Amino acid sequence: MQFSAEISKPKRWSRAVFLAALLLLGIFSTADHPKLRVLADSDTVMKDTARKLADRIAAIPGLHGPLCLDWHPDEKWSESEGARWQDTLRDAFDRRALQMSDDATAAPLAVYASETPTQVVLTAKTHVGDRDEVRIVSIPRASLPPAELPVAPVRLERQLLYESADRILDATALPSNSEGGLAILLYKNFEATVLRIDAKGEIRQTIPLNAASLKPTRNPHGEIAPRGNLIIVQFWGVVCDFSWESSTEAKCRPEKTPSSGKSAWRMDTVLTSPCDDTNWTMAQSGADPTAREVLQLIPDGATQGSTAAVLSEFPGPVLNVNGEQVPNGALVVVRNLRTGNYEVYKITLVCGG
Questions:
Q1: pLDDT digits 0-9 by tens, 158-208
Q2: Domain chopping of the chain, boundaries
Q3: Any residues with CB less than 8 A from the CB of 148 and at least 6 apart, and which?
Q4: 223-237 tens-digit pLDDT
Q5: Exposed / middle / buried, residue 235 (Cβ in 10 Å: 0-12, 13-18, 19+)
Q6: What is the pTM of this model?
Q7: Does the pLDDT value for residue 15 go beyond 60?
Q8: Burial of 209 by CB count in 10 Å (0-12 exposed, 13-18 middle, 19+ buried)?
Q9: If we measure between CA atoms, which residue out of 126, 114, 57 comes closest to residue 90?
Q10: Is 236 exposed, middle or buried (0-12, 13-18, 19+ CB in 10 A)?
Q11: Strands (E), the chain
Q12: d(CA 321, CA 260)
């Protein structure tokens, strides 16, 4: 009987393991259902990050309080977002028994918050004895759920429309009454040309801008836009205009600097969502001409780098953006780092995440 009892214990244990495995399988199957999927709680992620920073600060050799928190939030954060992080940090410092004080004479503990396209980085800096001590923690931005904003879910669609080995400065969509298509502004050997491209991508017309007499520049910039029956082209210090129907060459003249002191170039590109008429502002870094660039579309009420932003990566640096002709779309000029060609993409904001 004793031998039989010993045998029954493993059997009961095996049965329990089997039932537990079935239970876990059921849980995982339920978790796969999209309606039951749960995003990470942003407060939990913030608390864990603040706790890690507090642990690293508390471990600094020779650190003694009281300390005065000198908070430097990311300039892109809203006031409320910065305040949430600051409150979370203060709570973490208190739980870690770091002696904090509001007295300005206390030793400063500077905490800097910054965002990259992929991470949130917190950097703490203080002075102990004759040395500076720095502690850093970072978390993926993807670990923070999208901000709760009153906007409908959208996504960004992208289509390559045209490419050329010659430098493309700008592109604009042409009105449907001119058979649609594109106007492309090219720049080569200090001379500029405008191409009219039909809907099939074929060159229908070429307008030289020799009269512009452009002066050499290290960073050439140009913009093109239809204005009624005319096509207006703006360069550095020169403006030209022509008509497809009556011109074989453009008329160009010097352009005066605006007396208001404001830039004559386009301001920020804003796309309007077709879902709920929310405005989305386009932001680009333009920091590295040798790297692929990630464009961000940011809804009203959010800041650059926000998890609510819609991102789109291009095969090289973005040189120009023209969103004047279509409310929910824009043309983007990119230099493809792999091929060396200049490309024109159409991006469109559409409903659905």
A1: 999 999 999 999 999 988 655 668 999 999 988 999 999 998 889 999 999
A2: 42-143, 154-351
A3: none
A4: 999 988 899 999 988
A5: buried
A6: 0.59
A7: no
A8: buried
A9: 57
A10: middle
A11: 67-72, 107-115, 119-128, 131-140, 154-164, 167-173, 182-188, 191-197, 203-208, 223-227, 230-234, 238-242, 251-254, 270-272, 279-283, 294-299, 310-313, 318-322, 329-335, 342-351
A12: 24
**Whole-angstrom Cα distance, residue 86 to residue 45?**
14
Classify domain 42-143 at the CATH topology level: Double Stranded RNA Binding Domain (3.30.160)
Q: What is the chain's length?
A: 353
Alpha-carbon distance of 134 to 132, in angstroms, equals 7
CA atoms of 255 and 252, how far apart (whole Å): 9
Assess contact for 311 and 148: CB atoms under 8 A.
Answer: no
Residue 13 host element (H or E): helix 2-31
**C-alpha span between 122 and 69 (Å, rounded):** 13
What's the burial of 313, exposed, middle or buried (CB within 10 Å: 0-12/13-18/19+)?
A: exposed
Residue 130 half-sphere exposure, CB side, CA atoms within 13 Å? 0
Which residues are 195's β-sheet partners?
A: 184, 206
Cα Rg of the chain (Å, integer): 29
Tokens of 198: 């039909």
Most distant pair of Cα atoms in the chain: their distance: 109
Q: Residue 336: CB partners within 8 Å, gap ≥ 6?
A: 163, 315, 316, 342, 343
